[in-house]
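User: I'll paste a sequence; please echo it back and then give the predicted structure.

Assistant: Echoing your sequence first, then the prediction.
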Amino acid sequence: MARMIGSLLLLCGLQLVVGDVCPDDVEVDLCDTNPGEFSGSMGMTPNLTLLLIVLAFALPGRAKSWALLLPAVVLPSAVAGLSCGDVKEFYKTNQCCGSATKELGTYPGAPTCPYNFQKPACSMAGPQTPRDLTANALGDKVPKAITLTDAQANSLPLVNVHFHLGAEHKSEAYSDGTDSDAFDAGRRLATTGTVRPGWMCPTSSLNSTQLQAYTFQYCKGQVEVGKSYEIHYVHSSAGMDANDTDDVNADSLSDGLGGAANGRGLLNPMIVVQGQIFQIVNGAATVDDMLHGWTVVGHTDSVMYSGSTTGTSHDNSVCSPYAITWHVDKACHQVSPESFDNLCKQMNEMYGMDSDLYPHGSRILVDKQYVVKSEFVVPLS
């Protein structure tokens, strides 16, 4: 019996190696320029099938094991609608020619991602941010998303804090567009750096002592005395709150908005951004903790509305795909340079943040046709 099995193995193994050789044909070969890469077909030949059947009944006590193996080998799985041409194209696209042992991260016929992450045209997007918050400013959009309240926002973990050069929003208290106009016109002033500045609080009432330069130790980039900055406190249901009983609902701050949009793997989190504008002035108020929320200086003149994410990757043509609740303080708060630098110190030393120690550029004020109507901009409640 052993000799018979050995003979069958030799015969069928030889057939497997030399049989079914792919011809040198551009319609058949996986690689047009390297047809000799494979010496034989890896498909199931009739002789190999016969061999397995013989083995199943020739080896005492192992018939059941070999019988269970047969369906897996004889009936290979297939991807519906996948052609040989698709396999060939996949093989060449993944640069497998000449690299038969290369490991792949996917396979032919793998399903494509069902989500479209391409940013929408503004004509197709939901209401956008920043909006003009001055009196009588118009808007055309009716929001589909519900605007969350102050209490609801504070129940969500704080996941990120960052700041923009100048205010992205515009109110009567911060409406100086001198720097942004110069930047947009291509006349980048020495003080504007490489990021787009937003609206500034007025400096006409400040004296030379109040505007004296200060050397920041922790904040990076263009952080200067006299300039204004819109700080964004980002709250998200995707964030982490390790201790529900303490007063600080911020246990996992990090750079960027990844934790807000996709923290813990959530794809549709509730997000609220609280925006507050600070002007850095020597001798102004000292605030010990500007990091853990905007309530430290009060926000009695604030509004809420439904909008989007901001940043200079969006304008009036390409818009943000996210629906965000916005709470914006319409006042301009003066703060000492030491207090602002301490904000950056806390961000870095408490949470290891680095890239958000630089000011972000400010998105251009969005056209009225892409922001909510004034009736949907209401006092914060």
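Residues 2-18 form the longest helix (17 residues). Residues 5-21, 35-46, 50-55, 63-77 have pLDDT under 50 and may be disordered.
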